[in-house]
Design brief:
Belongs to the peptidase M20A family. With 448 residues, this protein is α/β, with parallel strands linked by helices. The protein has a 6-stranded mixed sheet with strand order 1-2-6-3-7-15. A hairpin with a 2-residue loop joins strand 4 and strand 5. Bound molecules: zinc ion.
């Protein structure tokens, strides 16, 4: 049970007994804070921080400012001036709160995004009501990820109440635009060196509370355009149809590219398992006349399309080199070109993110794993996300590789109608986070 053992004739208290006491106190403390945790989550849901366009960001920062200041945190509200998405109409406000302990030590940073995606159709509850029913709190962002944010705040507050003599610092940030790339949120903070004084990062995204998410696959977006020559649609032989050229690209994809991508597998424990291969999604495809506007009443005119465009979303594995990923698409297009007369194309890169995966041996992984074992009585599951989240900026710009996503909530509920967070889920996950703080911020008192 115990890594460091204890000799029977030592007059030191048994470390297990000590940890047991801290764990019990934390659990009792969190149970006392159940109503507060519910109220906090509801209050966060009731601020409709929809992205796009990115609204009420300042309001949610001010709310968090009040809450965290009252708990002894020093706060900073930071507008991401000049960052992608920031305008006077839609200012991108972030908050970073920090509390230093009585002694020096490591800094544990909890990062949550405050933005939520559009509501969509199919709701039977008020998406911004924070309704409580059957042990769940409903609302847009309940699980992704205001529940996680609330749980991390209450975890930190419970830790502070139970362990007055601690070493290091706790930071809690609320950042914007994760749902649209995070450039005015975590990326901005990382560029401004906010992670320089941080040793451990926990992102309470909804990954199921006994799972540790180590990272994510890579992404590369690009646009392929094929060209032709416009002519009258009654005499297509006088022109050259760009859509038929694109059809040849699609054919090549079906015949060769998709099987080749599927044959690539990874050691990354990506969930769901289907994402343990390389994948490519055709995000959009367009050729010829634009789609008619709603106010257009006539029939289309007869033209041979001289352009067709396809946007691709390629997700790749840690074993793949980003340059090879691009070269593979170029090679495919060159193959079509060599087989087809008059085939001309352009390939335009849009944006990309390299894959990242924190090592299982990293301290933050180890401490959350131990806390999960204590709270749930079972081993954690290590997973990797098929899509990216803000860890990309912390790893790439912040150069910090001791970062995970861990938090309450069911991954599959994210972005769905009637999204909810389980209250017990939040409490248990808060216990895990608080136990991890005990280990990381009280030198020599590591729970086993
Ligand atoms: Zn999220």
């Amino acid at each position: 049970m115990n890594d460091h053992g204890s000799s029977p004739d030592s007059d030191q208290p048994d470390p297990d007994m000590h940890d047991f006491k801290v764990r019990d106190l934390l659990r009792a403390e969190l149970a006392d804070r159940r109503d507060d945790l519910i109220a906090l989550t509801q209050a966060l849901i009731r601020i409709p921080t929809l992205n796009p366009p990115g609204v009420h960001y300042r309001e949610i920062c001010e709310f968090l400012d009040k809450r965290l200041s009252a708990s002894g945190f020093e706060t900073q509200l930071i507008r991401a001036i000049g960052a992608h998405g920031d305008t006077d109409r839609y200012p991108r406000w972030n908050i970073v709160a920090r509390r230093d302990g009585p002694r020096s030590g490591d800094c544990v940073h909890f990062n949550s995004h405050t933005d939520v995606v559009e509501v969509g159709r199919g709701w039977t509850r008020d998406p911004f009501g924070g309704e409580v029913a059957d042990g769940k709190i409903y609302g847009r962002g309940a699980c992704d990820m205001k529940g996680g944010l609330a749980a991390s705040i209450v975890a930190a507050e419970a830790f502070l109440a139970v362990v007055p003599d601690w070493a290091g610092a706790i930071e809690i940030s609320g950042t914007v635009d994760e749902e649209s790339g995070g450039y005015a949120g975590v990326a901005y903070l990382a560029e401004k060196s906010f992670f320089d004084k941080v040793q451990h990062v926990i992102i309470p995204e909804p990954l199921n509370p006994d799972r540790i998410c180590l990272g994510h696959r890579g992404v590369w977006w690009a646009e392929i355009e094929t060209f032709g020559e416009i002519a009258h649609g009654s005499m297509p032989f006088l022109g050259d149809c760009a859509v038929r050229h694109m059809g040849a690209v699609l054919h090549e994809m079906e015949e060769n590219l998709f099987p080749a991508l599927h044959a690539k597998t990874t050691e990354m424990p990506v969930v769901p398992e289907g994402a343990r291969h390389s994948t490519l999604n055709i995000n959009s495809l367009h050729g010829g006349l634009p789609e008619p506007g709603e106010d257009e009443t006539g029939f289309p005119s007869a033209c041979v399309p001289d352009s067709a465009r396809m946007v691709i979303d390629r997700r790749y594995l840690i074993e793949e080199d980003p340059e090879e990923v691009k070269a593979e698409i170029r090679a495919m297009l060159e193959r079509v070109k060599s087989q087809r007369e008059n085939f001309t194309y352009e390939l335009r890169e849009m944006w990309g993110v390299t894959p990242t995966m924190t090592r299982k041996e990293a301290p933050v992984v180890q401490s959350i794993a131990r806390a999960i074992r204590q709270t749930y009585g079972r081993d954690p599951e290590y997973v990797v996300s098929p899509g990216t989240y803000d860890q990309k900026h912390i790893a790439r710009i912040g150069k910090l590789h001791n970062c995970i996503a861990y938090g309450p909530g069911i991954l599959d509920l994210a972005h769905k109608p009637d999204e909810y967070i389980g209250i017990d889920d939040m409490l248990q996950s808060a216990e895990v986070m608080a136990l991890s703080l005990v280990e990381l911020l009280t030198a020599g008192k590591a729970p086993t």
